[in-house]
Specification:
By secondary structure, the protein is mainly β. It is built from five helices and 19 strands. The protein has an eleven-stranded antiparallel β-sheet, with no helix packed on it. The protein starts with a helix and ends with a strand.
Length: about 325
């Protein structure tokens, strides 16, 4: 039974959910939601909301990328453990920033340099729900017409799944994107150029080929394939912590928002995949120590971490990295 079958039993879809079958997006559509501060003395002041908190307000590249990636509606910002409320004066200059968390803590942040109000795209949460008819998938076999780039990594790259540009939240993608990464290597960032979407090129191949691994059981001919699971995407106001989501990253560590090495643009957040999202279908990896079985029994990112994927649609470059506690 798919998610929409469950909804039909209730005769309605929750108001904050929009199904793939009910909403058609204009590929050029940009969504903007602003919250204004109302009041007789502050009618010209504006507020914006950022999910998360770890940013230095200096208007440098990381600050700009953080604003672009984490800006959202007030309702969504409040759904995160911590968020930042920004207040701009009547001239559109940031004059106050306060970080708040669920425990009731508040702290005013230092504004190091002038920051002007910009008309950023307001990000929504895109949750993934299991549905056999979904356009997106985790796991499964690599498509016959998709070529994993040659590399020297023990176990090579793992096929993680695909994201459809026909599904809600991904109308900005230029094509369907197959996700791959050498998740058992001690990787920092993996940069792939998808100019040919069926044959991506590793931009930092020399670095990738020199990576070490903590898994001694991996050999040059090791392989692992994960069970295929299809998903639909639904736009919501908070993250459902179950397998995978998109829209706004929920940082395990610090906010590490990549800029494209070709265009220097802030890369768009594609998805965040949690460890254990899908089980292993088949593998020839047999750990000598049974302690390591759990790392190969499912899609695992460094012992319970999360995989973050970003993509820049103009250059068609993707960035993959892992964070864990």
């Amino acid at each position: 039974m798919g998610i929409f079958d469950r909804f039909k039993k209730k005769n309605t879809i929750p108001k904050n959910k929009i199904s793939e079958g009910e909403k058609i997006h204009d590929k050029n559509e940009t969504k903007h939601i602003h919250q204004e501060v109302k009041g007789p003395k502050e009618s010209n002041k504006k507020r914006r909301f950022l999910a998360g908190w770890e940013v230095r307000l200096d208007n440098e590249e990381h600050c700009q990328s953080f604003f672009e990636t984490q800006i959202t509606s007030q309702e969504t910002a409040l759904s995160f453990y911590s968020h930042i409320e920004l207040e701009y004066d009547e001239n559109g200059v940031l004059e106050r920033a306060i970080t708040k968390d669920e425990d009731g803590n508040e702290k005013e942040l230092i504004i190091h340099n002038e920051i002007k109000l910009k008309d950023y795209r307001i990000n929504s949460i895109i949750n993934f729900y299991i549905d056999d008819n979904g356009l997106n998938q985790l796991g499964g076999k690599s498509p016959y017409n998709f070529k994993i780039p040659s590399n020297d990594c023990p176990g090579s790259f793992q096929y993680l799944g695909r994201i459809s540009n026909q599904s809600i939240g991904y109308e900005w993608l230029p094509f369907e994107l197959n996700l791959i990464s050498p998740i058992y290597m001690d990787m920092d960032k993996i940069w792939l150029d998808y100019s040919n979407p069926h044959e991506p090129v590793v931009l930092n191949l020399e670095e990738v080929n020199s990576l070490s691994t903590a898994y001694d059981d991996l050999k040059s001919d090791s392989f692992i394939e994960y069970k295929k699971q299809a998903f639909v995407t639904i736009e919501e106001t908070s993250i459902v912590f179950d397998k995978v989501h998109s829209g706004i990253p929920n940082w395990t560590q610090f906010s590490d928002i990549p800029r494209c090495p070709k265009t220097n643009k802030t890369m768009r957040f594609l998805c965040q995949i949690q460890s254990g999202a899908v089980k292993t279908e088949k593998s020839n990896i047999v750990p000598k120590d049974s302690f390591y079985n759990s790392y190969f029994d499912n899609m695992d990112f460094w012992g319970g971490g999360d995989m973050y994927v970003f993509f820049e649609p103009e250059s068609k470059i993707a960035c993959y990295f892992i964070q864990n506690t």
